[in-house]
Design goal:
With 303 residues, the chain is of the alpha/beta class. It has two domains: 10-124, Rossmann fold; 148-302, Glycogen Phosphorylase B (Rossmann fold), CATH 3.40.50.2000. 36% of the residues lie in helices and 16% in strands. It has eleven helices and ten strands. The strands form two sheets. Strands 3-2-1-4-5 form a five-stranded parallel β-sheet. It has a five-stranded parallel β-sheet with strand order 7-6-8-9-10, with helices on both faces. α6 packs across α11 (288-302). The longest helix has 16 residues, at 19-34. The protein is globular, with a radius of gyration of 20 Å.
Length: 303
């Protein structure tokens, strides 16, 4: 990875198509701006959350303009930073003389979370000595942090099926939380609602939140978050909502656990011997009782 030896005055930050990765990379935008460096951010999710990043120049993703057009768009920047070497654009080094890809940051072996790794990258590679891991999210006026302290946001989906705990167990967990006086509510993407309407037949709530901006506002006013390894978990953590995140493997949890607010992770595959078995059976090994106990411990730790 090339250190930013020559100061850059205008940086293009190209975000991942994934929500969690986008929120993590916004840490770089905040630290560059704190050091007086002009940053232009390109990313679909960040554009939907523009009001949550006051003062940041955020645009929607760059689309698929072709190499020549993309090179022309990026020519005015001193430096281009992208998290992954192959997405959203492959071969950026051919199109701009100064490109930093962050593959080494997230692929390297380290016990640190990605949020902490991003801050370290800013200090070690960009020479921003005062960098920290905050991504700068700030709630728009009128919202009250954790206004509904008993509301537990339950996010039962993820980018891939193998990351998801069993739906039936999420429902049983929600019922146990309701018995304990909490208000568990399921949050899913608009295109996923049809597959989760059955929770309403159990007397559970499935709010129709619509846009990502509305999801952020709803999370910001919730008391707690429980969910899979997912971008929504990172969003809740960014908003300083206490999180309980369910992971299939310890290595993934070390790297991709939500790294901003208070939270815990629970590993479903602790006693399984091989990677194949861990990925296939972790969700069956993780009982409702274990998740309930972990949530109660999180509540006790924050009492």
């Amino acid at each position: 990875m090339t250190q930013l030896v020559q100061p850059a005055s205008h940086v293009a930050l190209i975000l991942s198509p994934a929500l969690g990765d986008s929120l993590l990379t916004m840490t770089i935008a905040r630290n560059l701006r704190r050091d007086g460096i002009d940053v232009t951010v390109y990313g679909h999710h960040a554009a939907r959350l523009r009001d949550w990043f006051p003062g940041v120049d955020i645009h929607d993703d760059l689309g698929n303009p072709g190499d020549a057009a993309l090179a022309a768009r990026l020519a005015r920047f001193d430096l281009v930073i992208q998290m992954h070497g192959d997405r959203p654009f492959a071969g950026l080094q051919r199109l701009h003389p100064r490109v930093i890809l962050l593959d080494a940051v997230h692929r390297g072996r380290s016990p640190e979370s990605m949020a902490t790794r991003m801050a370290r990258f800013c200090r070690d590679e960009l020479a921003l000595s005062s960098a920290d891991k905050s991504n700068g999210m700030s709630a728009p006026a009128g919202l009250v942090h954790r206004r509904h302290p008993q509301r537990v946001a339950i996010h039962p989906t993820a980018s891939t099926v193998d990351k998801c705990w069993l739906a039936s167990r999420y429902i049983r967990l929600a019922m146990k939380l309701r018995e304990r006086g909490f208000d568990p509510q399921f949050v899913v993407a608009p295109e996923e609602r049809g597959a989760w309407l059955h929770v309403e037949r159990q007397g559970l709530t499935l709010p129709d939140l619509g846009s990502l901006d509305n999801v952020a506002a709803w999370l910001y006013e919730s008391g707690w978050f429980i969910g899979n390894d997912s971008g929504i978990g990172h969003l809740a953590s960014s908003l300083q909502i206490p999180t309980l995140s369910l992971f299939m493997r310890r290595g993934l949890a070390h790297t991709w656990r939500p790294g901003w607010g208070r939270g815990q992770v629970l590993i479903g595959s602790t006693y399984l011997p091989t990677g194949h078995l861990k990925e296939r059976y972790w969700k069956y090994m993780l009982s409702v009782r274990k998740v309930t106990h972990a949530f109660e411990q999180l509540c006790a730790d924050l009492a």
